[in-house]
Write a structure and sequence with these properties.
With 324 residues, the protein is an alpha/beta fold. Helices cover 32% and strands 14% of the residues. It contains eleven helices and eight strands. An eight-stranded mixed β-sheet has the order 2-1-3-4-6-5-7-8, with helices on both faces. Helix 7 links the parallel strand 5 and strand 6. The radius of gyration is 19 Å and the shape is globular. The structure holds thiamine diphosphate and iron/sulfur cluster.
Length: 324
């Protein structure tokens, strides 16, 4: 198939290079200190005006939109929580046809799916996978607040081990709350999609890195996946002024690692000289307050193993879901 003209986005060196124009404008109804809202603002600045964003159902649709009113200053459409990848595929395919037939004179818009962890790696997984398998020129962003937040902070496959949610309340029989360790979302996509050449993880605590990774993903012709760590004060139960502190502490303890996977090669960013104990990250969040020393030790063992080779599969002490 003939290549259609696409946009080339420039990398930025520092915060002074960030686009001053707002594409995600104030006046929406997300919680104070909402990490995913900040993530939307940054990804919008990365993609710019000539973009089409897809919003699968979740906080970033429901809390942002009311009748005839959204904060998105570019083309934006809601899609179902299940089908972000499918709707984005259709839009990209349609633009390809229009451009090839000369009916649309511009370049291919930057097409971005902004899905929560539920809409990306759980309930929306098959459509995301199909989009990547077919090789559509779309950036799939997973803003990860580690829960199905919009429906009351229910557990998702990204909820960490030991996380308290409305579906994983700690109690006598299950004192740790969530028993399982999370899915490895980048691995899942890297593992089975030959058309996928760019995957990255980023954090709202490191905005320049986040913007550049989204731009790089958009510059790649074909699908790209960016996994964003987005603390959620309502679900993780910390003070809303601490969102960036929590995001940075995740990196400083090894709970989260920023990396890129490009054509099979890994590169790592913001690796501290020595990692702080993961307890430091957990203690500021009430969702972990119920954990006993043995649970924290288990979490630390998981993180210690993970930081040896971030982004690569590791053997983790996972209990089977039916294990007593
Ligand atoms: C097929 C289907 N199942 C369930 C729902 C209910 N639902 C709406 S939003 C939501 C949570 C979405 O979670 P996530 O994708 O992680 O985004 P977040 O709310 O955390 O931003 C759920 C379960 C739905 N809208 N459609
Ligand atoms: S529940 Fe979390 S993700 Fe949803 S609007 Fe509030 S802070 Fe943001």
């Amino acid at each position: 198939m003939a290549q259609v003209p696409t946009q080339e986005l420039e990398m930025i060196k520092n915060l002074r290079g960030v686009d001053q124009k707002e594409y995600y404008v104030p006046g929406h109804r997300t919680c104070a200190g909402c990490g995913p809202a900040l993530c939307y603002k940054l990804v919008s600045k990365a993609a710019g005006q000539d973009s089409i964003f897809l919003g699968p159902t979740g906080c970033m649709y429901v809390a942002n939109c009311s009748y005839m009113c959204t904060p998105f200053a570019y083309a934006w459409t809601h899609c179902q929580i299940t089908n972000g990848g499918a709707v984005a595929s259709g839009i990209e395919a349609a633009y390809n046809v229009l451009i090839r037939k000369g009916k649309y004179k511009g370049k291919l818009p930057n097409i971005v799916v902004m899905a929560g962890d539920g809409g990306a790696i759980d309930i929306g997984l098959q459509a995301a996978s199909a989009m990547m398998y077919r090789g559509h020129d779309v950036l799939f962003v997973m803003y990860d607040n580690e829960s199905y937040a919009n429906t009351g902070i229910q557990t998702s496959p990204m909820t960490p081990y030991g996380g308290k949610t409305t579906f994983t309340p700690p109690g006598k029989n299950v004192p740790e709350g969530k028993k399982l360790f999370p899915k490895d979302a980048p691995q899942l996509f890297i593992g089975g999609h030959p058309a996928l050449h760019y995957v990255a993880t980023a954090s709202i605590g490191y905005p320049v890195d986040l913007i550049n990774k989204c731009r790089k993903g958009l510059n790649y012709k074909g699908p790209a996946f960016v996994h964003l760590h987005c603390p959620c004060p309502k679900g993780w139960l910390y003070d809303c002024k601490d969102t960036i502190r929590v995001a940075k502490m995740a990196v400083e303890t090894g709970f989260w690692t920023n990396y890129e996977w490009e054509n099979g090669e890994y590169t790592y960013q913001h690796i501290p000289k020595t990692y702080k104990p993961v307890k430091e990250y957990m203690k500021g969040q009430e969702r972990f307050n119920h954990l006993q020393e043995e649970h924290i030790a288990k979490m630390q063992a998981f993180i210690t193993a993970k930081v040896k080779a971030p982004g690569k599969p590791i053997e983790i002490p996972v209990l089977g879901p039916r294990e007593a």
